[in-house]
Amino acid sequence: MKKIITICCAMAVATGAFAQSGLLGSLKGIFGGSSSEETSSTAADILGSVLGSVISQAVTVSLPGTWTYNGCATAVETDNTLTTLAATAYKENLEKKIDGYLGKVGIKAGSAVITYAADNTFTISNGSKVIASGTYTYSDKTVQMKFGKVYNYLSMTGTVAASVEGCQILFDADKFLAFASKAAKVVSARAGSTSGILSLVEQVKGLKIGFDLKR
């Protein structure tokens, strides 16, 4: 059975070891290739046990309320072990691009908030500026967010997992990028295209992207 494994800061022990020129080709093997391309079992087992305990814990998050956006979150759904070096480099590059893009439309770490109201409506805002709104349903660690008319009634379903500071909500990468692209058109033309991010996303099967939130 496939597992969603969060690519988190535990991988920082290997930061910088992969050159950008060879990263994307290596990732194809890591996330979709053969077992011969996997890293040593000792390191992978230790890493897997730590990350698995974080993402699969039985705690159900109480979602209603106001959450501060703490940056984007990324994860991968895979049957293979993760190569620490490449996953770290990939995470840093991708999350930097996503946070830079979202920041142009006002979804900035530390200042943007997502409010899930008790009446099953939600808003994504920064100060008095509402960036997006709609309705949501939440059940058994799964949240479905349905945006309003200006977002062409976009709907995306995410998995909610408890984290140290709050929670992470992870969506299929293509749905999350559709949201980001639409937000740019609605809020700020300065954000440009998501094509640069898409070129990275397409290299990895089962990629999830979403929100890292804290109370």
Number of domains: 1
Secondary-structure element order, N to C: EHHEHEEEEEEHHE
Q: Unreliable segments (pLDDT under 50, ≥5 consecutive)? A: 2-56
Walk across the major sheet and give the strand order.
2-3-4-5-6-7-8-9
What's the gyration radius in Å? 17 Å
Note the gap between the termini. Answer: 32 Å
Number of strands: 9
Mean pLDDT: 75
Residue share in helix: 25-40%
Largest sheet: 8 strands, antiparallel, barrel
Structural class: alpha+beta
Query: Total helix count?
Result: 5
Form type = globular
Strand content: 25-35%
Architecture overview:
This protein is α+β, with helices and mostly antiparallel strands. The chain has one domain (3-214). Helices cover 33% and strands 32% of the residues. It is built from 5 helices and 9 strands. The chain has helices at residues 20-32, 41-55, 84-103, 173-187, 195-201; strands at 3-6, 65-78, 112-116, 121-126, 129-139, 142-147, 155-162, 166-172, 207-214. The protein has an 8-stranded antiparallel β-barrel. Strand 6 and strand 7 (155-162) form a beta hairpin. Helix 3 runs antiparallel to helix 5. The longest helix is centred in the middle third of the chain and has 20 residues, at 84-103. The protein is globular. 31% of the residues are buried.
What does this entry show, briefly?
Helix content is 33%, strand content 32%. The chain is built from five helices and nine strands, in the order βααβαββββββααβ.
